[in-house]
Structures are given as C-alpha cells and as structure tokens.
C-alpha cells in the first residue's frame, strides 16, 4: 500500500524529532517521558519512596521516568487499555479505567496503601470531532480526580492531560475544590500541533 503524504510527513517529523532521539539515547520507551520530567523539574512532583499511580501508562515511559526518581523502595501502579512490557517495580494492570471492574482491580492491588501522586496521560481515541474528543478526555480527567479524592494522601498531587474546550473550565473548578494549588502548562516536549495541555493539582485538601 502506498503511503499517504500525511503518514510520510509524520514519519519524517518523528525521525527528525530531537525528543525521539533523546528518548532512544536515554533508554525511554517514548518521547512522552520528557513531559513528566519537565513537570517534575518545574513542580517537584516526585521524590524517593513515593506511591505513584500511572493512568494511561503504555508504552511505559512515564513509569520509567517516575521509577528513576522514586527508587526501589517506591511503588508504581500502572494501568492502560493497551499492553505494556514489564518494568521493574511497576505493577501493571491491563484494562479500561472507565470500567468499574478495572477500577476495583487497581484498588485491590493498592490494598491499604495511599497514593502520593496520580499521573494521567489518558486520552480517548481521537475522532477529529473537537467537541467529542474534548468531552471524552474531560470524562477521563474526572475519573482520575475522583480516584485521587478516594486514594490520595493529604498534600498529594494530580497531573492530568486535557484539551481546552467547553467543559475545561468547569473541570478546572473541580480541581480547585480538591487542591490548594492548581496550574496549567504545556511542556516544551509537546508537539506544537498538539492541543494537549496539562492540569496540575498540588496539596490535596481534606475533601472527605
């Protein structure tokens, strides 16, 4: 099958992408690692011995980046609808976070542990319909926020990927109710054409 101009353009961009080259050099599974690395440099999210939940984890670069910082005494619980190759000290669950059974599986894995940091790179399958895609990712954001309210330690943090749109400001308002500090940012490693933006809530309030 002949490649389309779009696929050729994407391949050229990918091959010439400095973050792709750096990921290969540093041993990360994808360039997405640098989004979390930059967030940590800016906001000091990660430290030794933390309990981290990585939602939308495949292929595993965020878990790799987090694991390099929290060390062998920390724990990462990763979840994705796609398969993920094993990573040391990472407990992986394959499933759709929107399903109750998958959520319960994650909760059972956590047991009595409380979480220091929830990171979410989850996104719906992109349809190209802006309102549909935005509604889909806000739903995932809401699920990550609800999970955080139930499982996070006091002063924990939540980092989620989102898209700006009709429900975006309402969601920001919900994050502000749950956290003392809320910021938004677009990492340098996000591609210019990407509409993604990251929402960070720090210092979880006593929302119970």
Give a structural overview:
With 208 residues, the protein is an alpha/beta fold. It has a single domain, classed as 3-Layer(aba) Sandwich (Rossmann fold). The chain is 41% helix and 24% strand. The protein has seven helices and seven strands; from the N terminus they run H-H-H-E-H-E-E-H-E-H-E-H-E-E. It has helices at residues 5-15, 18-26, 33-43, 61-70, 100-110, 130-151, 168-178; strands spanning 51-55, 75-80, 90-94, 115-120, 152-163, 179-185, 196-204. It has a seven-stranded mixed beta sheet, with helices on both faces. Helix 3 runs parallel beside helix 4 (61-70) and helix 6 (130-151) runs parallel beside helix 7. Residues 6-15 have low confidence and may be disordered.
Strands of the widest sheet, in order across it, are: 3-2-1-4-5-7-6
Q: End-to-end distance, in Å? A: 56 Å
Helical amount among residues, as a percent range? 40-55%
How is the main sheet built? 7 strands, mixed
Radius of gyration: 17 Å
CATH class: Alpha Beta
CATH superfamily: Vaccinia Virus protein VP39
Brief synopsis:
The protein has helices at residues 5-15, 18-26, 33-43, 61-70, 100-110, 130-151, 168-178; strands at residues 51-55, 75-80, 90-94, 115-120, 152-163, 179-185, 196-204. By secondary structure, the chain is α/β, with parallel strands linked by helices.
């Amino acid at each position: 099958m002949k490649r389309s101009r779009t696929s050729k353009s994407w391949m050229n961009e990918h091959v010439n992408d400095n973050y792709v080259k750096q990921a290969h050099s540093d041993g990360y599974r994808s360039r997405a690692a640098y989004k979390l690395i930059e967030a940590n440099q800016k906001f000091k999210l990660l430290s030794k011995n933390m309990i981290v939940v990585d939602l939308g984890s495949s292929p595993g670069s965020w878990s790799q980046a987090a694991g390099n910082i929290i060390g062998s005494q920390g724990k990462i619980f990763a979840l994705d609808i796609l398969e993920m190759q094993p990573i040391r000290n990472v407990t992986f669950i394959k499933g759709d976070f929107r399903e109750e059974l998958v959520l319960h599986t994650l909760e059972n894995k956590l047991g009595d542990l409380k979480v220091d940091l929830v990171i979410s790179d989850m996104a719906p399958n992109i349809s190209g319909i802006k309102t549909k895609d935005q509604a889909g990712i806000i739903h995932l954001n809401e699920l990550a926020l609800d999970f955080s309210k139930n499982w996070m330690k006091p002063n924990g943090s939540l980092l989620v990927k989102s898209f700006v749109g009709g429900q975006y400001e309402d969601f920001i308002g919900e994050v502000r109710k749950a956290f003392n500090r809320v910021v938004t940012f677009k990492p340098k490693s996000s591609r210019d054409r990407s509409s993604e933006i990251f929402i960070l809530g720090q210092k979880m309030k006593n929302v119970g």
